[in-house]
Specification:
Layout: E1 13-19, E2 28-34, H1 54-62, E3 90-97, E4 100-101, E5 104-105, E6 108-109, E7 112-114, H2 121-126, E8 134-135, E9 148-150, E10 152-157, E11 161-168, E12 174-178, E13 184-190, E14 211-214, E15 218-225, E16 230-236, H3 239-243, E17 247-253
Length: 280
């Protein structure tokens, strides 16, 4: 996290306090902001530890808005891309879970726990190597039943405009990252997401991000413009969950092969796994 602070207070020392939220025990770190001409030490009581106020935090997340009245360092002003007026081509709902598979702790997305193959997915896709991953084996809505192991890749079309909803039925906050893109987080809510929740979306001035939080027993919705061709990872930002399966891949593609969309693979690209024997 990065913040900007306007130093417009009387010259003295001030406490800077950061505390965790939604953890079993609140962890607090304290620093000092020191004015160069200060002769007054920081004083006063420190803020209390944060309470587990999910609604308060959710309202704070909704309050983060883009200033559409400011000019940007490009010909078009901020907000000229009206994401809220673009029809979505499809809706994807992704639910995280923490199943046991073969008596071992795993993490999953829509009932599939990702297994990292010995051959990079991009190499397998480029050279049409079989039995590395499976196309479209991940349901695009949450599924019932036991979780399974797999290496799914979901096929999407270049320039699609997609709604993705992250559904969290667990009691811990989740964090999701989409590789290769930024997106607009348009909505947060509690309970199970339904189509009626779209009426609560911010369709005007959401900030662009590439990571989004999902509150306990809640949901977060994003809009993303798939304008970057390639094989892209969508994953938990919590490393243990990512390593143990809470991730999968999008393949954004078009039949129109063009260097404007994607460069060809270099002739000297390193090859490993099942791609080792492919000639340069």
């Amino acid at each position: 996290m990065a913040v900007l602070v306007t130093l417009n207070q009387p010259s003295k020392d001030y406490f800077i306090v950061a505390s965790t939220r939604f953890t079993d025990k609140a962890l607090t770190a304290t620093g000092i902001l020191h004015y160069s001409n200060s002769n007054t030490p920081a004083s006063g009581p420190l803020p209390a530890e944060p309470a587990g106020q999910i609604n308060w935090s959710m309202d704070q997340a909704r309050s983060l808005r883009w200033n559409l009245t400011a000019s940007a360092a490009r010909p078009n002003p901020q907000g000229s891309f009206h994401y809220g007026t673009i029809p979505t081509s499809r809706s994807i709902v992704l639910a995280n879970s923490a199943p046991l598979i073969a008596v071992k702790q795993r993490y999953a997305v829509n009932g599939v726990s990702f297994v990292i193959p010995d051959t990079p997915l991009k190499l397998a896709d480029n050279y049409n190597i079989a039995n590395v991953f499976t196309w479209d084996s991940l349901s695009l809505t949450p599924t019932a039943g036991p979780a399974i192991l797999g290496t799914p890749v979901v096929r999407l079309n270049l320039h699609e405009f997609v709604e993705i909803v992250f559904q969290n039925t667990e009691t811990k906050v989740q964090s999701w990252h989409l590789d290769g893109y930024d997106f607009w987080p348009v909505g947060y809510g509690s309970g199970a997401w339904t189509e009626s929740q779209r009426s609560t979306y911010n369709l005007v001035d959401a900030t662009s991000r590439h990571t989004v939080q999902v509150y306990p027993n809640g949901w977060s919705a994003i809009f993303v413009s798939l304008d970057n061709q390639g094989m892209w990872n969508i994953r938990s930002s919590m490393w243990a969950r990512q390593y143990l399966g809470q991730q999968f891949y999008f393949r954004v593609w078009t039949q129109q092969q063009s260097l404007a969309n994607e460069y060809t693979i270099p002739s000297n690209a390193l090859r490993c796994g099942k791609a080792t024997s492919i000639l340069h």
